[in-house]
Protein backbone atom coordinates (compact mmCIF):
# COMPACT_ATOMS: atom_id res chain seq x y z
CA UNK A 1 0.00 0.00 0.00
CA UNK A 2 2.71 2.47 0.99
CA UNK A 3 4.88 1.40 -1.96
CA UNK A 4 2.16 2.10 -4.40
CA UNK A 5 1.59 5.50 -2.83
CA UNK A 6 5.30 6.24 -2.91
CA UNK A 7 5.46 5.33 -6.57
CA UNK A 8 2.50 7.55 -7.33
CA UNK A 9 4.14 10.46 -5.58
CA UNK A 10 7.35 9.96 -7.59
CA UNK A 11 5.42 9.86 -10.80
CA UNK A 12 3.58 13.07 -9.95
CA UNK A 13 6.87 14.68 -8.96
CA UNK A 14 8.51 13.73 -12.26
CA UNK A 15 5.58 15.12 -14.18
CA UNK A 16 5.74 18.46 -12.45
CA UNK A 17 9.53 18.45 -12.77
CA UNK A 18 9.21 17.92 -16.51
CA UNK A 19 6.68 20.71 -16.77
CA UNK A 20 8.96 22.92 -14.75
CA UNK A 21 11.87 22.31 -17.11
CA UNK A 22 9.64 22.97 -20.14
CA UNK A 23 8.44 26.20 -18.67
CA UNK A 24 12.05 27.12 -17.80
CA UNK A 25 13.32 26.48 -21.32
CA UNK A 26 10.34 28.29 -22.79
CA UNK A 27 11.09 31.33 -20.68
CA UNK A 28 14.79 31.16 -21.66
CA UNK A 29 13.79 30.92 -25.31
CA UNK A 30 11.57 33.92 -24.99
CA UNK A 31 14.34 35.86 -23.31
CA UNK A 32 16.78 34.88 -26.07
CA UNK A 33 14.29 35.90 -28.69
CA UNK A 34 13.84 39.28 -27.06
CA UNK A 35 17.61 39.73 -26.93
CA UNK A 36 17.96 38.72 -30.56
CA UNK A 37 15.40 41.28 -31.59
CA UNK A 38 17.55 43.99 -30.07
CA UNK A 39 20.59 42.95 -32.25
CA UNK A 40 21.24 44.41 -35.93
CA UNK A 41 19.70 41.55 -37.84
CA UNK A 42 18.84 43.70 -40.84
CA UNK A 43 22.50 44.27 -41.76
CA UNK A 44 23.09 40.55 -41.85
CA UNK A 45 20.08 40.11 -44.08
CA UNK A 46 21.41 42.84 -46.45
CA UNK A 47 24.79 41.18 -46.56
CA UNK A 48 23.15 37.92 -47.43
CA UNK A 49 21.20 39.50 -50.29
CA UNK A 50 24.36 41.10 -51.68
CA UNK A 51 26.15 37.79 -51.58
CA UNK A 52 23.26 36.15 -53.38
CA UNK A 53 23.23 38.90 -56.05
CA UNK A 54 26.99 38.59 -56.61
CA UNK A 55 26.72 34.87 -56.97
CA UNK A 56 23.84 35.25 -59.38
CA UNK A 57 25.81 37.74 -61.49
CA UNK A 58 28.81 35.47 -61.48
CA UNK A 59 26.65 32.56 -62.57
CA UNK A 60 25.27 34.64 -65.44
CA UNK A 61 28.78 35.61 -66.55
CA UNK A 62 29.88 32.01 -66.42
CA UNK A 63 26.83 31.00 -68.39
CA UNK A 64 27.57 33.65 -71.02
CA UNK A 65 31.24 32.64 -71.20
CA UNK A 66 30.18 29.03 -71.65
CA UNK A 67 27.87 29.98 -74.51
CA UNK A 68 30.65 32.05 -76.15
CA UNK A 69 33.15 29.22 -75.86
CA UNK A 70 30.73 26.76 -77.40
CA UNK A 71 29.90 29.08 -80.34
CA UNK A 72 33.32 30.70 -80.89
CA UNK A 73 33.55 29.58 -84.54
CA UNK A 74 30.25 31.21 -85.44
CA UNK A 75 31.24 34.36 -83.57
CA UNK A 76 34.57 34.47 -85.41
CA UNK A 77 32.78 34.34 -88.77
CA UNK A 78 30.39 37.10 -87.73
CA UNK A 79 33.30 39.25 -86.58
CA UNK A 80 35.07 38.77 -89.91
CA UNK A 81 31.93 39.76 -91.80
CA UNK A 82 31.53 42.82 -89.59
CA UNK A 83 35.21 43.70 -90.20
CA UNK A 84 34.71 43.54 -93.98
CA UNK A 85 31.59 45.70 -93.77
CA UNK A 86 33.46 48.27 -91.68
CA UNK A 87 36.26 48.34 -94.26
CA UNK A 88 33.75 48.88 -97.07
CA UNK A 89 32.07 51.68 -95.14
CA UNK A 90 35.48 53.27 -94.49
CA UNK A 91 36.32 53.12 -98.22
CA UNK A 92 32.95 54.67 -99.08
CA UNK A 93 33.59 57.49 -96.62
CA UNK A 94 36.99 58.16 -98.22
CA UNK A 95 35.44 58.29 -101.71
CA UNK A 96 32.72 60.61 -100.42
CA UNK A 97 35.39 62.95 -99.00
CA UNK A 98 37.18 63.01 -102.37
CA UNK A 99 33.93 63.77 -104.17
CA UNK A 100 33.21 66.58 -101.72
CA UNK A 101 36.65 68.10 -102.34
CA UNK A 102 36.07 67.94 -106.11
CA UNK A 103 32.64 69.50 -105.68
CA UNK A 104 34.16 72.34 -103.65
CA UNK A 105 36.75 72.96 -106.39
CA UNK A 106 34.09 72.84 -109.11
CA UNK A 107 31.92 75.17 -107.07
CA UNK A 108 34.76 77.70 -106.88
CA UNK A 109 35.34 77.47 -110.64
CA UNK A 110 31.63 77.79 -111.35
CA UNK A 111 31.51 80.93 -109.22
CA UNK A 112 34.33 82.44 -111.31
CA UNK A 113 32.58 81.45 -114.54
CA UNK A 114 29.31 82.87 -113.24
CA UNK A 115 31.05 86.18 -112.49
CA UNK A 116 32.51 86.27 -116.02
CA UNK A 117 29.12 85.44 -117.55
CA UNK A 118 27.49 88.24 -115.56
CA UNK A 119 30.16 90.67 -116.79
CA UNK A 120 29.68 89.57 -120.39
CA UNK A 121 25.92 89.76 -120.02
CA UNK A 122 26.17 93.35 -118.79
CA UNK A 123 28.45 94.24 -121.71
CA UNK A 124 26.11 92.61 -124.21
CA UNK A 125 23.11 94.43 -122.77
CA UNK A 126 25.05 97.70 -122.87
CA UNK A 127 26.03 97.12 -126.50
CA UNK A 128 22.48 96.14 -127.39
CA UNK A 129 21.17 99.38 -125.93
CA UNK A 130 23.91 101.51 -127.52
CA UNK A 131 24.17 100.25 -131.11
CA UNK A 132 25.36 103.06 -133.42
CA UNK A 133 22.70 104.06 -135.94
CA UNK A 134 25.15 103.69 -138.84
CA UNK A 135 25.59 100.00 -138.01
CA UNK A 136 21.82 99.50 -138.00
CA UNK A 137 21.58 101.25 -141.36
CA UNK A 138 24.44 99.17 -142.73
CA UNK A 139 22.81 95.94 -141.55
CA UNK A 140 19.51 96.92 -143.13
CA UNK A 141 21.27 97.78 -146.37
CA UNK A 142 23.18 94.49 -146.34
CA UNK A 143 20.05 92.41 -145.74
CA UNK A 144 17.93 94.27 -148.29
CA UNK A 145 20.46 94.03 -151.14
CA UNK A 146 22.39 91.03 -152.44
CA UNK A 147 26.17 91.48 -152.72
CA UNK A 148 27.49 92.56 -156.08
CA UNK A 149 29.84 90.21 -157.83
CA UNK A 150 32.06 93.09 -158.95
CA UNK A 151 32.78 94.13 -155.35
CA UNK A 152 34.06 90.99 -153.62
CA UNK A 153 35.12 91.62 -150.05
CA UNK A 154 37.87 89.06 -149.99
CA UNK A 155 39.81 87.41 -152.84
CA UNK A 156 39.29 84.06 -151.19
CA UNK A 157 35.65 84.25 -152.28
CA UNK A 158 36.73 83.81 -155.90
CA UNK A 159 39.02 80.91 -155.12
CA UNK A 160 36.38 79.06 -153.13
CA UNK A 161 34.64 78.04 -156.38
CA UNK A 162 37.56 75.94 -157.55
CA UNK A 163 38.04 73.01 -155.16
CA UNK A 164 36.37 71.54 -152.07
CA UNK A 165 39.59 72.11 -150.10
CA UNK A 166 39.51 75.80 -150.90
CA UNK A 167 35.88 75.91 -149.79
CA UNK A 168 36.82 74.46 -146.42
CA UNK A 169 39.76 76.84 -146.05
CA UNK A 170 37.60 79.84 -146.89
CA UNK A 171 34.95 78.73 -144.41
CA UNK A 172 37.57 78.29 -141.70
CA UNK A 173 39.02 81.72 -142.46
CA UNK A 174 35.59 83.35 -142.28
CA UNK A 175 34.88 81.62 -138.96
CA UNK A 176 38.20 82.83 -137.53
CA UNK A 177 37.47 86.38 -138.66
CA UNK A 178 34.01 86.18 -137.06
CA UNK A 179 35.49 84.89 -133.80
CA UNK A 180 38.05 87.70 -133.74
CA UNK A 181 35.34 90.29 -134.33
CA UNK A 182 33.23 88.81 -131.50
CA UNK A 183 36.19 88.85 -129.11
CA UNK A 184 36.97 92.44 -130.06
CA UNK A 185 33.36 93.43 -129.40
CA UNK A 186 32.95 91.54 -126.11
CA UNK A 187 36.26 92.44 -124.51
CA UNK A 188 36.53 95.98 -125.88
CA UNK A 189 39.72 95.22 -127.78
CA UNK A 190 40.99 98.14 -129.83
CA UNK A 191 40.39 98.09 -133.57
CA UNK A 192 43.32 97.33 -135.83
CA UNK A 193 42.72 100.52 -137.77
CA UNK A 194 40.17 103.21 -138.43
CA UNK A 195 37.44 102.26 -140.87
CA UNK A 196 34.97 104.21 -142.97
CA UNK A 197 31.46 104.65 -141.63
CA UNK A 198 28.64 103.64 -143.93
CA UNK A 199 26.74 106.35 -145.77
CA UNK A 200 23.25 107.08 -144.47
CA UNK A 201 20.27 107.90 -146.65
CA UNK A 202 20.35 111.53 -145.51
CA UNK A 203 24.01 111.90 -146.44
CA UNK A 204 23.48 110.19 -149.76
CA UNK A 205 20.71 112.63 -150.65
CA UNK A 206 23.17 115.52 -150.22
CA UNK A 207 25.56 114.10 -152.85
CA UNK A 208 25.13 115.85 -156.21
CA UNK A 209 23.80 113.61 -158.96
CA UNK A 210 26.67 114.37 -161.33
CA UNK A 211 29.13 112.83 -158.84
CA UNK A 212 27.33 109.50 -158.77
CA UNK A 213 27.01 109.43 -162.55
CA UNK A 214 24.70 106.93 -164.21
CA UNK A 215 24.36 104.68 -161.21
CA UNK A 216 20.74 105.33 -160.44
CA UNK A 217 19.76 101.82 -159.32
CA UNK A 218 20.68 100.84 -155.75
CA UNK A 219 23.21 103.67 -155.55
CA UNK A 220 23.20 103.78 -151.72
CA UNK A 221 23.70 100.03 -151.49
CA UNK A 222 26.45 100.16 -154.10
CA UNK A 223 28.44 102.83 -152.28
CA UNK A 224 28.06 101.05 -148.93
CA UNK A 225 29.29 97.77 -150.43
CA UNK A 226 32.22 99.66 -151.85
CA UNK A 227 32.90 101.03 -148.33
CA UNK A 228 32.84 97.47 -146.96
CA UNK A 229 35.42 96.41 -149.54
CA UNK A 230 37.64 99.37 -148.59
CA UNK A 231 37.31 98.52 -144.89
CA UNK A 232 38.37 94.94 -145.55
CA UNK A 233 41.38 96.25 -147.46
CA UNK A 234 42.36 98.48 -144.53
CA UNK A 235 41.89 95.69 -141.98
CA UNK A 236 43.98 93.24 -144.01
CA UNK A 237 46.74 95.82 -144.46
CA UNK A 238 47.02 97.01 -140.87
CA UNK A 239 46.54 93.54 -139.41
CA UNK A 240 49.73 92.54 -141.21
CA UNK A 241 51.48 95.65 -139.89
CA UNK A 242 50.35 94.91 -136.32
CA UNK A 243 51.88 91.42 -136.43
CA UNK A 244 55.41 92.74 -136.57
CA UNK A 245 58.37 91.86 -138.73
CA UNK A 246 59.03 88.41 -137.25
CA UNK A 247 55.43 87.26 -137.63
CA UNK A 248 55.21 88.66 -141.16
CA UNK A 249 58.37 86.79 -142.12
CA UNK A 250 56.94 83.61 -140.63
CA UNK A 251 53.79 84.03 -142.74
CA UNK A 252 55.86 84.71 -145.87
CA UNK A 253 54.63 88.31 -146.24
CA UNK A 254 57.85 90.05 -145.26
CA UNK A 255 58.18 91.90 -148.60
CA UNK A 256 54.63 93.23 -148.37
CA UNK A 257 55.25 94.21 -144.74
CA UNK A 258 58.37 96.19 -145.67
CA UNK A 259 56.46 97.84 -148.54
CA UNK A 260 53.73 98.99 -146.14
CA UNK A 261 56.35 100.28 -143.71
CA UNK A 262 58.04 102.29 -146.47
CA UNK A 263 54.66 103.85 -147.34
CA UNK A 264 54.21 104.87 -143.69
CA UNK A 265 57.56 106.64 -143.61
CA UNK A 266 56.54 108.79 -146.57
CA UNK A 267 53.40 110.19 -144.94
CA UNK A 268 53.13 111.91 -141.57
CA UNK A 269 50.53 113.91 -139.71
CA UNK A 270 50.96 116.29 -136.83
CA UNK A 271 47.68 115.26 -135.21
CA UNK A 272 48.42 111.55 -135.07
CA UNK A 273 48.70 108.34 -137.06
CA UNK A 274 47.17 108.25 -140.54
CA UNK A 275 45.39 105.26 -142.04
CA UNK A 276 45.31 105.09 -145.82
CA UNK A 277 45.15 102.73 -148.78
CA UNK A 278 46.12 102.85 -152.41
CA UNK A 279 44.62 101.47 -155.60
CA UNK A 280 47.26 98.75 -155.46
CA UNK A 281 46.19 97.80 -151.93
CA UNK A 282 42.56 97.63 -153.06
CA UNK A 283 43.43 95.41 -156.03
CA UNK A 284 45.59 93.14 -153.84
CA UNK A 285 42.65 92.51 -151.51
CA UNK A 286 39.65 92.47 -153.90
CA UNK A 287 41.31 91.49 -157.20
CA UNK A 288 39.41 94.31 -158.90
CA UNK A 289 40.76 97.60 -160.18
CA UNK A 290 39.45 101.04 -159.29
CA UNK A 291 37.69 101.97 -162.52
CA UNK A 292 35.67 105.02 -163.49
CA UNK A 293 32.65 103.91 -161.48
CA UNK A 294 34.68 103.43 -158.33
CA UNK A 295 36.42 106.76 -158.87
CA UNK A 296 32.98 108.40 -158.84
CA UNK A 297 32.20 106.56 -155.62
CA UNK A 298 35.48 107.79 -154.13
CA UNK A 299 34.51 111.33 -155.08
CA UNK A 300 31.19 110.82 -153.29
CA UNK A 301 33.07 109.61 -150.21
CA UNK A 302 35.26 112.70 -150.34
CA UNK A 303 32.12 114.83 -150.54
CA UNK A 304 30.78 113.07 -147.41
CA UNK A 305 34.15 113.64 -145.69
CA UNK A 306 34.90 109.96 -145.27
CA UNK A 307 38.36 110.23 -146.83
CA UNK A 308 40.72 112.64 -148.56
CA UNK A 309 43.34 112.27 -151.25
CA UNK A 310 47.08 112.68 -150.71
CA UNK A 311 49.55 112.41 -153.59
CA UNK A 312 53.16 111.49 -152.75
CA UNK A 313 55.77 110.68 -155.41
CA UNK A 314 53.17 110.23 -158.17
CA UNK A 315 51.22 107.80 -155.98
CA UNK A 316 47.69 108.70 -154.97
CA UNK A 317 46.79 107.67 -151.43
CA UNK A 318 43.32 107.74 -149.92
CA UNK A 319 43.59 108.82 -146.28
CA UNK A 320 40.77 107.91 -143.90
CA UNK A 321 39.43 110.92 -142.04
CA UNK A 322 38.69 110.60 -138.33
CA UNK A 323 35.07 109.92 -137.36
UniProtKB/TrEMBL annotation:
GO terms for molecular function: microtubule binding. The chain crosses the membrane at residues 6-27. One of its GO terms (cellular component) is spindle microtubule. InterPro entries: SKA1, SKA1_MBD_sf. Pfam families: SKA1. Keywords: Membrane, Transmembrane, Transmembrane helix. GO terms for biological process: cell division; chromosome segregation; mitotic cell cycle; regulation of microtubule polymerization or depolymerization. It comes from the Eukaryota. Signal peptide: none annotated. Belongs to the SKA1 family. This is SKA complex subunit 1. The lineage of its organism: Eukaryota, Metazoa, Ecdysozoa, Arthropoda, Hexapoda.
